[in-house]
Amino acid sequence: MEELTKTQTILLTLFVSFVTSIATGITTVTLMDQAPPAITQTLNRVVERTVEKVIQPASVVTKEIKVVVKEEDAIVAAFERNRSSVVRVETAPYDGEETGKVLGLGVIVSADGIVAIDKNLVVPDGFYRIGINGEVLGARAVFSSDTHPLAYLFLESLETKASDTLGTTKDNALFDTVKRAVGIQAKNSFQSVSFGASQKVKPGQTAITIGGVYGDTLMTGIISRVAYNAAPVATTTDDGLKEESGTAEHDRRLSAIYTDISLAAYDMSAPLLNVDGNVVGIFVLQKQGGYAVPSDIIKEELARISLRQDAQAKDVDAN
User: Fold this and answer.
1) Contact present, 196 and 274 (Cβ < 8 Å)
2) Which InterPro entries match (predicted)?
3) Does the structure show a pLDDT above 90 at 186?
4) Do 152 and 126 sit in the same domain of this protein?
5) Does 34 reside within a domain?
6) 132 plus 97 within the same structural domain
7) Does 157 share its domain with 221?
8) Domain-terminating residue out of 182, 207, 239
9) In 38, 51, 137, 174, which residue has its Cα 20 to 30 A from 236's Cα atom?
10) Does 140 or 63 have the greater pLDDT score?
11) pLDDT class for 236, splitting at 50, 70, 90?
């Protein structure tokens, strides 16, 4: 009897709740019908926003912005970026002469003052003059490639006049030793070019160069052809220098870049630029015509120069 009473109580409670809910709903609907429109609209907005927050998940809107760069703007930027790194090379003046003979152009390829030039324009251990930012600096040939037609000049310190560079190789080696010993080795920072990956150069791409007698003339065209040969096998000698011998026939390596740009003799040693403003080659003149030595080769030769300079410095310190 007691359990029946509890059951009845539960059923009665549920029934009362049901009736109360129905009554509440009827009352709410009645009040909503009688309420002013302003209150009704406010309540509807609250209900709609509440339902939207519960049902709809938060969404993330991604907006893609495309920046269009005109090729002509990229060409102008490449010219402005590299024009200061293209210099004019001339011989040291003889007795009674104010200026020397203009040989051609050169490209500053290292911030410590290394200038790349067509090796047909210079002689080993020769001394030259280069004008940079209104200053006339001396330059001497320090390295000539055995496999490619490029030579490299080293700019003297800003304190060294061009006339002071004249002398024998032995005299200049002694002069460098003295400078290093007393701690006045040049620490100049020149504006050098930035290299791109020449291995990515393909026919049809835009070609840009800076030539002219004064190295201030912009010329454009396209890459017309690229040439490959078998990659050399590099071996390391006891002094840490890398030597090249033999070929690996299975591996092709970019050896020359050709363009449709019409180059004159005084345009030799001009840089070949891509639209990003990076140097991908340096022009040289050969019997078969002009072409650009790829930048990947130039970077390897600069590394070899650095190794040789380190080895020479160790020999000087040891003595």
Assistant:
1) yes
2) Peptidase_S1_PA
3) no
4) yes
5) yes
6) yes
7) no
8) 182
9) 174
10) 140
11) very low
**pLDDT for the residue numbered 166:** 37
Please check the confidence at residue 74 and state whether its pLDDT lies above 50. yes
Position with higher pLDDT, 56 vs 16: 16
- Do 206 and 268 lie in one domain? The reply is yes
Query: Residue 42 is encoded by which pair of tokens?
Result: 């406010």
* Domain-embedded: residue 211: yes
Residue 30 shares a structural domain with residue 141 = no
pLDDT band at 285 (very low <50, low <70, confident <90, very high): confident
229 near 242, Cβ under 8 Å? Answer: no
Q: Residues 219, 209: contact at Cβ < 8 Å?
A: yes
Tokens 């490959």 sit at which residue? 228
Residue type, 13: T
Structural tokens at position 261: 């740009």
pLDDT of res. 286: 75
| Domain identity same for 47 and 141 | no
Question: Does residue 215 sit in the same domain as residue 177?
Answer: no
> Are 124 and 162 contained in the same domain?
yes
Cβ(85)–Cβ(189) below 8 Å: no
User: Is pLDDT of 184 > 50?
Assistant: no
Average pLDDT along the chain: 76
Alpha-carbon gap, residue 177 to 231, rounded angstroms? 38
315: Cβ contacts below 8 Å, ≥ 6 apart = none
Instruction: Please tell me the least confidently modeled range out of 90-94, 135-139, 159-163, 189-193.
Output: 159-163
Q: How far apart are CA 271 and CA 82, in angstroms?
A: 9
Question: How many domains are contained in the chain?
Answer: 3
Report the range of poorest mean pLDDT among 22-26, 66-70, 123-127, 225-229.
Answer: 66-70
> Can you give the residue range of the structural domain that contains 293?
198-318
